[in-house]
Design a protein that fits this description.
Layout lengths: L2 E5 L4 H12 L3 E8 L6 H12 L3 E6 L33 H16 L3 E3 L15 H14 L1 H4 L5 E3 L7 H11 L21 H12 L9
Helix pairs in contact: 1-6, 6-7
Length: 218
């Protein structure tokens, strides 16, 4: 069976991506990152999702001591409303590049030829490392900077949700049987989602447009 590495955060997009990869016949190896984020709730959700999908997972703990994001520094307030022409303070410097570097190393070691990431550039917070052009540029790096790349067999990074809006992602996930009640999107780690942060608002918008109830609320 073909193997794939899947970056799993525990949110809507990455969980849908995992189930899509499984549906396409991949044996999925999940990478879950503890990078010092404000709360561990999304990590717990990611582990539950991986177990629900019956997929092996690795929890990778890394340290980003320089901060630079309101998701890392508790002294910084997570924004509730913002100008979408600017990159929000929740952007973590180089996060996807760091995660994908781990994923590339893991994929080469495990002889997996494919990496899945649930990046999206439609209903998203404006992070530069979620855009299609970033992944196109990274393709060249993989070809030139990895063993499999220089041997002519580079790992592929697939972004199947890159041009879908949240409602399209949710409808797809429903068909795939994604247990959305196990996912967590909110930037806070409270018992229930805050409903005010950017991630909560995008999630609510998606379920509303998909005309279905968000099961996270029971």
């Amino acid at each position: 069976m073909k193997k794939a590495v899947v970056l799993l955060s525990g949110g809507l997009d990455s969980s849908t991506t995992l189930f899509l990869a499984k549906d396409q016949g991949y044996k999925c190896l999940c990478l879950i990152f503890d990078y010092g984020q404000r709360h561990k709730k999304e990590i717990k959700s990611a582990i539950k999702i991986a177990k629900s999908a019956k997929c092996d997972f690795r929890l990778i703990k890394i340290n980003l001591p320089w901060g630079g994001s309101s998701l890392l520094d508790r002294k910084l307030k997570v924004p509730q409303y913002r100008n979408r022409k600017t990159i929000p303070s929740t952007y973590v410097p180089g996060r996807n590049l760091i995660f994908l570097s781990f994923a590339l190393s893991f994929a080469e070691a495990q002889k997996a030829r494919t990496i899945f990431i649930g990046a999206n550039q439609i209903d998203y917070s404006g992070y530069p490392d979620c855009r299609g052009e970033f992944y196109q540029a990274l393709k060249k790096v993989i070809e030139k900077g990895t063993k499999t790349g220089v041997q002519g067999k580079p790992a592929k990074i697939l972004t199947p949700l890159i041009d879908k809006n949240k409602s399209e992602i949710i409808r797809l996930g429903r068909k795939l049987g994604v247990p959305y009640e196990l996912t967590w999107s909110c930037y806070s780690g409270a018992k229930t989602p805050c409903g005010k942060c950017d991630s909560c608002r995008l999630r609510a918008k998606g379920f509303k447009e998909a005309r279905t109830r968000d099961p996270i609320y029971g």
